[in-house]
Amino acid sequence: MSDATGPSPDDLLAEAGALHDDVVALRRDLHRRPELGLDLPATQARVLDALDGLPLSVATGEGLSSIVADLDGGRPGPTVLLRADMDALPMPDDTGLDYASEVDGVMHACGHDAHTAMLVGAARLLSERRGDLAGRVRFFFQPGEEGEGGAPRALEEGLLDAGAAGAAGGEPVSWAFAIHQSPSIPSGLVATRPGALLASADVVLVTVEGKGGHASMPHEANDPIPVACAIVGALQTWVTRRVDVFTPAVITIGRIRAGTVGNVIPERAEMEGTLRTVAPRVQEEAQAAIRRIAEHTAAAHEMTAKVRIVDGYPVTVNDDAAADEVLGAARWLLGDERAVALPSPVMGAEDFSYILQQVPGAMAFLGTRPPGVPRGQVAPNHSNRMVLDEGALPTGVALYATAALRGLQRLGR
């Protein structure tokens, strides 16, 4: 896309900047009233209201509170998908902001409210530029990213089909793009990479079965708690000594539950954690190691360990050409210094991975670190004190729009 065939970077940034107040207001509304999982009726209604009046064909999900909205350009062509997730996390909001969550125990701690607001802004911006579009832009507002698997459910409902939003004609989706904000990255900076961007995420469940008894006579019982602790330590040793650091794995046991009172040795200890990898071979080896270490460590203490591993989100793999195209779009829009190719994957996980298994595309991070906050002091995503720089949101709006414009132009050649 050049100045001769479309808008300039200054045009797009100015148009996105003009939407700043509306985008921030929508983001704050969503932040005050977060919802969990696949059923987000209030969030869906608020987004539909924000889209009202735009020249879009709109459909809502059948088994989830999704929104699919299509914008047809002035000329026929391919279809590109822009995605934002809408769900929150089951945790308290301790930010102290005047627009903090009004729902006890629920918070937008991963910035999905910002993603949604930016995508609505992009829908408004691109609606004003229908004449620049040779094809269709599909805006996908997704519930259930935080562990509920909203993306594969939407795929089952025909997300990528030509008529997903009810409009006649058009082509199926052939390219997809998503933004994820990050307070760990300087505000306004865009970062992505070709290949693996985010890890897979499996759930690890281990139950160590011992023998209960009185705390004063451990020799007459068989205490599962120290064995559970030994398993945790052995898993960390396995990661550091058996996994190539250039194809990383992370095993974290985030919850251990055992016992009821301090003077009773319990019969069992239950552990729950996560396994994250960026390579199928390492994932397979790690799953086998978890089973082997847990079972054999327990057996060494005359106990048993039951291991269950639940496959979670797959690795988020950016198409090489799509990642290069997004970086090129960011450099064109923002300048070389604000577009960065990441040297390695991030060990978080995303269900946008399912969409990228079906069509080429990419995800990029948008930096939202609040001004004046050193990196080491920032509250990251999934923190109960996570805050983001709303001044970066117009950059996200412009990046969504630029990715769509450039994607349609390239695919239509």
Describe this structure in words.
- The protein has 413 residues and is of the alpha/beta class.
- It folds into two domains: 9-199 and 315-411, Zn peptidases (Aminopeptidase, 3-Layer(aba) Sandwich); 201-313, Alpha-Beta Plaits (2-Layer Sandwich).
- It is 33% helix and 26% strand.
- It is built from ten helices and 16 strands.
- The protein has helices spanning 9-18, 20-32, 41-51, 112-127, 150-156, 224-242, 280-300, 320-334, 352-358, 393-411, and strands spanning 57-60, 67-72, 75-85, 134-142, 173-186, 190-192, 195-198, 201-209, 213-214, 249-258, 264-265, 268-277, 304-313, 316-318, 339-341, 361-369.
- The strands form four sheets. An eight-stranded mixed sheet has the order 1-2-4-3-5-16-6-15, sandwiched between helices. It has a four-stranded antiparallel sheet with strand order 10-12-8-13, with helices on one face. Strands 7-14 form a two-stranded antiparallel sheet.
- Helix 1 (9-18) crosses helix 10, helix 4 packs across helix 10 (393-411) and helix 8 (320-334) crosses helix 10 (393-411).
- The chain is elongated, with a radius of gyration of 24 Å.
